[in-house]
Structure formats: C-alpha cells, structure tokens
Amino acid sequence: MALLDIQNLQLAMRSYEGETQILHGIDLTIERGEIWGMVGETGSGKSLTGLSVSRLIPSPPGRYLAGTIDFAGKDLLKASDRDMRALRGRHIGMIFQDPTTNLNPVFRIGTQLVDVALHAGHNDPSILGLSKDASRGAMKKAARKTAIEMLDKVGIPNASARIDDYPHQFSGGMRQRVLIAMAMVGKPDLLIADEPTTALDVSVQAQILRLIHDLVAERNIGVLLITHNLGVVAQICTHVAVMYRGRILESGPVRDVLKHPTHVYTQALLDSVPTVHTKRGELRGLSGLSQEASA
Amino acid sequence: MTTTDTAIVQARPQSARMENWGRAFYRFRQSWLSIVGLAIVLLLIVVAILSPYIVPHPEHLQGVTNTAARFQPPTAGAWFGTNELGQDIFSLVLVGSRISLFSGMAVVFIAIVVGTTVGAIAGYFGGWLDEILMRLTDLLLTIPSLILAMAVAAALGTGVFNMIIAIAITWWPAYARLVRGEVIGKKEEQFVVAARALGANATRILCRHILPNIVSPIVVKASLDTGFAILTVASLGFVGIGVKPPTPEWGTLLSGARSYMPDYWWTAVAPGTAIFLAVLAFNLLGDGLRDVLDPKARR
Amino acid sequence: MVRFILRRLVLLVPVLIGLTLLLFVVARLLPGDPVGLAAGPNASAETIAQLREQFGFDQSIPLQYWTYLTGLVQGDWGTSVFTRRPVFADILEFLPATLELVFAALFLAIVIGIPLGLLGAVYRNRFPDYTTRILALGGIAMPRFFLGLLLQMAFAAWLGWLPLSGRYPFIEIPPETVTGFYTIDALIAGDWYAFQVAFAHLALPAIAMALSPLATIMRMMRASTIEVLQQDYVMTERALGLSSRLILFKYVLKNAMTSTLTVIGLYVSWLLGGTVLVETVFDWPGLGLYATQAILTQDFMPVIGVTLVIAIIYLLTMLVVDLLYGVFNPKVRYA
User: Fold this and answer.
1) For C88-332, CATH number?
2) B278/chain A closest Cα distance in angstroms
C-alpha cells in the first residue's frame, strides 16, 4: 500500500474577490523510499498541496471541493482534528522555508524539540525507547535523550551542550538542521519539506540535501520536497511532479521527466535554467501568468 | 515570467496627497465605531459652543437658585434632576462642557505646539542640544503628571487659564519625544538631503518638508489625548484645584455631588457620565484615525 | 547581570539629583508662601519672620538647595510647614497605604487583563472578543473617581456588601506591621478576621484604580498575541502536532509578553501619581491625600518629597521591567 496517495484533490480558497479554485485535481502517489520533488512557479499550488496533507489549511478561507488524501489507509480529509494532531509530528513531519523565522526565538531549541518528542511519544512511547506505562519523568528524560541523538544525527556538533542554546546562537544552515531534527524526532514515515533550501546559500544547500537523502536511505521514509529549483530536483529527487496553476502537468521518475519531458511547459522550465554555456542576454523566461491567488 | 506589454499609466485626476486622504476617509467610514466617536465629538463641540444659549434654565447658570425644587429626581421638567440649590443639572452639565471640552483641547494644542518645537529642534540638530532637551524631557516624564499639574495649578492660583498651563506643562514632553523620533527618521530621507543640497535652511526644511510628513502620528495622538486631557481637567476640578465652584465644570460638579450620595445619585451620575462619554468619544475617534493613518496598526 | 543592575543604579543618582534640582527650582519659582499661610491671617510680621527662619526660608536659594540635597541623603527631607513633622516621617507613614492600593490594582489588572487579552486574540472577531473590546474601551474612558463613587453606591450603600470608605475600622487594631500592607500582615500573623476586614476595605478602591490599566493591558496583550499567532514558528509548532493549548499558554504567551511588559511599567507611574483621586473618594490615608493637602497649603517640601519617592519607585520599576525583558526575550540578555 502506498504511503501517501492523493487522488483528485480540489481546493478552493476564499479571498476579498470571492472564492477561487486553487487545486484542480491533484493526483500524486508516494511510496516509502521515494523522494518526490514538486516543482513549479510561485502560485502554482505546491505549498498548498503540502499543507493539505497535514490539514494545516484552516477552513474558512480553504474548502476542499473533492478528492481524497490517503495516508497509510486513512483518508486524511475525513479525519478528525484529534486524529490529525496525532499524525502530525509522529507520522508526518514538516519543515518550512525560512529557518530564521520558523524557530521560536525566545525558547531554547531543546524545549521545542523535547515538546515535539513528548507529543510523538505520548501515544507511542516505543519511539522513545520506553514501554507503554512509563512515568512522566521517564518520558521527559527519554525525550531529551532522543532529541540529543537527533541533533547529533543531523550534524549539530556537541549536541548535548547545544541543545540548550537559543536559535539566534546558530547559523542559518544549522537552524535548518535543527528544524529537520524537529521534524524527524518523532520518527515519521513521511517528510514534507516546503522549499527547505531556498533561504540557504548553495554550499549549505548541498549539505542539507545530503542530510535528507541519508535520512531517507536510513529510515526508508517517503519525502515530498516542494521547490522551484530544478537543480535541487535533479540532485536528490527520485521522482518529480511538475505543477502549473493547480494541476500536475507531468509526473514520473526524475530521469524520465527531466531527460524526456512530454509537456511543453516542462521543456520550457528546463530551458529557462541557465547553464555554463548560456550566453549573456540569452536568458529565457516563460510567458503566461500564474493565477492571481497566491499559494 | 510576466508578459512584456507596457501598461498605459492613467492620468490621475487629483494630486497624490488628496487621493491619499480620500482613501483614508473611505477606510475610516468602514468602522462604525469610529463614526460614532466622530459624531459624539462633533455633538459635544456644538453643545459646548451653543450651550449658554440653548439650555432650558440659563438663570441657574448665573447662580439663581430655586430651593423649593431641590433634589428633584430626573423628570420631564429637569432631565437630569436638580441639585441642592434647585438648579437644573442638565443646564449645568451642558455648560460644564464648555470648560471641560475647551480646556482639554487647549491643553493638547499647547502641548503640540511646545512639544513639536522642542522635539523638532532636538531631532533635527542633534548633538548636545538634543541631549539637553531630551534629558529635560525625560526628567519631566519621570515626575508623576497629576501631582505636578496639581502643584503648578495650585501655585499659579485658581482660574481656567492657570489650570490649562499647568496641565500643558505635563503634556508636552510626550509630544516632544514623538516628534523627535519622527524627525530623526525623516531627516535622512532623500527628499531632505535634496532640499539641503538646494540650499534650504533648517527652518524651511523642517516646516515645509519634514513636519507635513509627520502629521499623522501627531493627529492620532492628539485625538486620543484630548479625551485624557478632559479627564485630567475633570480630575483637577474634582480635587478642588484649578477651577472653583460655582463655575460649572464636570469635575467640580461631581465633587460637589459626593456629599449627597447615594440618595441623590443623579447629581453625580450626570456629570460623571458626561466625562465618560467625552473620553470615550475621543478614544473611538482616535482609534479610528489610528487604524486609518498608521499602516502598522492593522487590527 | 549584576554589573548591569549596578550600572543602572549608579545612573539613577544623576537623574535623581537633576530631579531634585528641577523640582526645587520650580517650587521656588512659583508664587506662594507656605509660611504666611501656615502662620495664619492674623500673624504679625515678626511671627512670620520667626517661622521663616525656623524653616530655613530666610537663607539664599542656592544655600537652601544645598542644605536640602545634603539633608536628603541623610534622611532629612525637610519639614512640612503644615504638619510640623519631618517629611520623611510623614511619607513613611502614608506610603504603605498607597503602595498596597497600587499593588492590588496592578495585580487585578494583570491577572484579569492578560488572560482576557489572550482570549480576545484567540477568538478574534467573535463574541468573546467583542465583549472584551467593549470592556477595554469603556475601561479606559471611565474616570477613576466616578467609578469609585458608583462602586460605593452600588456595593456599599445599596447592597451593603462592602464598607464605604477607609482602610481599616477605627475601633479595630490593624495587624502588626511587617510589610505595611494590612492584607499581607494579617496573613503573616495568621489573623483571618483581620485579613477579611482589610481585604473588604481594599476591594472597591483597588477595582476603581484597576480598570484603566486592565483595559490597556488587555488591548496590548490582544494585539501582541494576534501578531505572534501569525508568525512562522507558530505554524511549525502546529505542523509538528503540538496542542493549541500548549502553543498558546507556553509559547505564544511568552512571545507576546514583551510589549505588555512595557505597558505595565508605564502604568506604575500613572497609578502612583493618580491614587489621590481614589483616596479622596474612599478616605484612603495615602500619599495622594498627603500631597494634595500639601499642595493646597503651598507647602512645597512634602510635595517635592512625595514626587521624589514616586519618581524613585518608577525608575526602579523600569529597571525591573528592563530585567524582565531579558527573561522574556533571551536575545536582549545582558552578559
């Protein structure tokens, strides 16, 4: 059974001008071990698709017109709030774009990590290495230990000391690692990463991508990597879906799509990426506007 | 990623500044609370101006008493009832609005004039002038304003004018601080640098360029402050400093009514509610203006 | 951190000196003759001159100031022409009553204002929000003295639930002084009856003083909370499954506190300086009444003394607020 199976997802959002349909029937299937890139322009609906999986779009402005999101057999669109909360952090992890604004600045990173670990371990203490009837104190200790291990795993040096540091004491790349640690500490099966490297410089970007790749290899999780950067897709994704204005135009294994694109738009995207050989003045953009409603 | 057609720039029918005010006005109309505030404020001003001519019992204002009708509860003849001298409280409260309202507005006006001057000079010239002026301002801000106002008013003697001066002395520092901050912010902007390069002197730059651009926060603060200034005027009256009976002022009326509580409650409720209404109205107005003029304060 | 506190305390000294200078100059510049007033209308010129010499008013003004300044540090804050007692002793007698009132009002304002502000932000634009916003608007506009009168009318006169005025019944003996706060001293002494009596007297004046700061604190909290709720890190916290309750009461609350803290600090000055209005209504024997009487008799030593005390307390409060900023926002912590 697929890890994540989105069928015909249709989403409308309300704004000042009235309701606009943003997603026009998204179909996407992610298996364990796959890293799916979701690529497209700003406003194509990629972030909203990612947020929909975790049901993070609030119900005034957002309204699902049709479709299902199957996660390990359950339709998330019909799940209760309680069930969703149980899934978040524990089975589905998320990281967002800007590491500076996504960590609460007045709390130590350890506090935030431990809270996520405690939440994940609440229904399932085994992930912390404990049995069902562990005490609160034991849970807290185990959560902290797990958090330190996770920080270590994502490459934070001297994790046991740095866990008590504040976000402003870390660099941008390290902060993103911390966020990845937070997303992974609950040992989720699916990781949704919304533009995780966009705010980082290229060398750090490579390290973060490598980290994600290693995590997938090690834990056999599925990843939905939302990005507008084809280079990122080419580097670590196993599969890719090309989005435009709320529709997936083309999807499949990365090699097939990038080497032999069947859709004109995909070809245009590929053509717009400057290479070493691109001469000055030869930059090619795409004409055609994204829809007015932003993601 | 967008098309390369160039759009035609529409010619604007009004100047940009007028359009800005027009748009601001439209946003103001959106909030009904602000409209209510504005309406009450206008009503109060009209009442204050016209009161001696429209009150039902003008003779009571001169001190004529009617002891036969003392302590009448609110009736058709006397809407707010009568006080211990048989005088119509409605008339007294209405006329009281003159002193309370206009004193409050006068205080804010003086505070703005003095505060803006001090703040603009300090902010624009900087250096030791700024230091001295700001030290002075901060010192004044550390002193509890009510006590200072009372002390100065008492020392200067009774009378509306002295009271206004006394309160204004405690109000200007806040405006000085505000204006200084704004001037410092605007000082380094391109248009000021340009004006200076063209040879404008400090006065011209301040008056013609900087000050018109910092009007918004001053207007917002002024309208919020007027309510509190009225409250301070009433507070001084209540304590017995500044305006003395029989001059009708909401604070003195309230103070006089204390002795007759709770049996003749209307003697206090009328002036007290008047104060409350005035402060509320100016607050609503000020809030409405702030939502419209200050882009950062979006609710 | 200790160095920071010390540095701030040291900086306080020039501020206070400047303050005394300013106050002294203003007091002497203003017209008024306390000695003449105190001596009475029938006093002869000799009596007045004698009194003047007794109070040191015959010396030159700079000398008077110097005497005053040196006296200040030694605990001699001048003598009140009206009460004929040292100002310092007078202040010590009346200060606890005012402080108790101010503390009670601030306590009420914080304990009610902050949760209501949070509530208003969470249920934004729905019923709880509208009621809190109306409360906020009404609270700021309501004059303390009018509210005091209304409370007296309702709860003391008509319902008879609470006493009309005063701090403690004349016929009773207040609890033994440890802090000067009757309520706390009663608790310390384990005297439940005394506590109830003191509390009942404190209730109405405290409410009258508390409404305005409550309203502002509530509005500030609401505004900051709304702003914090829109931050990215709240989205991350939600995305990783943390409960709304945890997010709100542990995380968002701390983030939103800094601006509210500023408001609280500023209100301390407002409260301290404004107690006179409520003290008048409730016959509360505090600093406000003392200062007002001094003002009316143009007795400026007590006025300067009271102003100085309030200014010191205000400056110390701002110091505490600045320290608390460091608690709520680690980025501004001092090495």
Assistant:
1) 1.10.3720.10
2) 36
